[in-house]
Amino acid sequence: MTQKHCILIGAPVDSGKRRRGCLMGPDALRTAGLAESLNELGHTTTDMGNLAPEPVNTPAPGEQLYAWEETIGWTRTLSQATQRAMTDGVPILLGGDHSLSAGSVHGAAEYAASINRPQFVLWLDAHSDFHTPHSTSSGNLHGTPVGYFAGRPGFEGFPAVTHPVPEENICIIGLRSVDAAERDALQATRIHRHDMREIDEHGILRPLTAFLEKVIAANGMLHVSLDVDFLDPSVAPAVGTTVPGGTTVREAHLVMEMLHDSGLMTSLDLVELNPFLDERGRTASLLVDLAASAFGRRIFDRPTHRY
Question: Does the annotation count 127 as an active-site position?
C-alpha cells in the first residue's frame, strides 16, 4: 500500500444552514480517532487545527440568504488551505456543513489547473446541492456548492471560479431528495447522477466503476465529498438533513474500498456531521471507519487495480 501524507483541515463551518451543530464535527472526528486510524495504516498525518473564516463585507443579493458573508469567508479560507495542502499531501476537510465544499473544491480545482490536470468530483450525497443563490428557496447555502464550482451564476463576492469543474467531470451518487428547480437544472447538464432507485436496481459498483474509468482516461485528480446523509439515518443519525432510504454501511464501505483500490483520490471532505444529534458518537466513528477504508483498511490483502 502506498503511504500518503494526510493533512487534516478542521472546517467547523456552521453557516450553510440554520440548524446549528456542525461546528462540532471536526473535533468529533478527531475524538473518534481519525488520525490514529490513518497512522495505523502506515500513513502520516498533520493536523492543521480548526480554521476560521476570512472577514468579509459583501452584502447578500437576497434577504432570504442565510450567513452570506460568513460563507464567503469560509470559501476563501478553505480554498486557500486546500490548495496549499495539495502541494504536500492529501487534504482531508473535517466538516462542518456542506457549504465548505465550495472552498475545498475551488482550491482543489485551482491546484489541478496549476499542474495542467483536469479536476473530477465524486459527490456522495442524498442531495444534489446544485442550487444557486437565486434558485434556493430556503436560503441555506449548503445546497449550493455544486452549483458554485460548476460555474453557475449568482455567487457575487465569492472567489471567482476561474477553473469550473466541467459538468461531465462531476458524478453524484445517492440522490433521493432533489427539488423541482434542481431537477430541471440537472437534467439540462452532463453531470452524472445516480439516485437510490438506480442503486437498488443495479448496485453501486457499476456507476462508480464507469466514473473512475473516466478519471483514469483523463489522468484526472479526484475530489471526494462524503456527506453523512449519503448513509441511511438508521446507521448515521448525526445529520440535520435526514432522508430515509440511504446507502447501507456495506455499500458505503464498498465505495471507499474501490476508491482506495483505484488510487485516484487526491482530496476528501467529511461533511454534515452534527454531533449534537449523534448517539454516543456512532456516526463520527462510522465516518472514521469509512475514511480508513478509503485509505486502505481491509480484512485481507488483495491485488489492487485501476478501474
Answer: yes
What is the gyration radius of the CA atoms in the chain, in angstroms? 17
195 is catalytic: no
Beta bridge pairs of residue 44: 5
47 belongs to the catalytic site:
no
* Neighbour-count burial of 153, counting CB atoms closer than 10 A to its CB (0-12 exposed, 13-18 middle, 19+ buried): exposed
The one catalytic residue among 14, 110, 182, 229: 229
Distance in angstroms (rounded) separating the CA atoms of residues 152 and 212: 25
**Core vs surface per residue 112-122: b (16+ CB within 10 A) or e:** beeeeebbbbb
**Residue whose C-alpha is closest to residue 212's, from 177, 254, 184, 250:** 254
Q: The C-alpha cell of 200 is what?
A: 437498488
Distance CA 270, CA 94 (A): 5
pLDDT band at 300 (very low <50, low <70, confident <90, very high): low
Catalytic annotation present for 142: yes
Summarised one tens digit per residue, pLDDT across range 246-262 is 999 999 999 999 999 99
Q: Is 98 annotated in the active site?
A: yes
Condensed to tens digits (0 to 9), the pLDDT of residues 91-137 reads 999 999 999 999 999 999 999 999 999 999 999 999 999 999 999 99
| Dist. CA 193–CA 59, nearest whole Å | 33
Q: Give 232-285 as a DSSP string.
A: -TTT----SS--SS-B-HHHHHHHHHHHHHHT-EEEEEEE---GGG-STTHHHH
**Under 8 Å between Cβ of 128 and 172:** yes
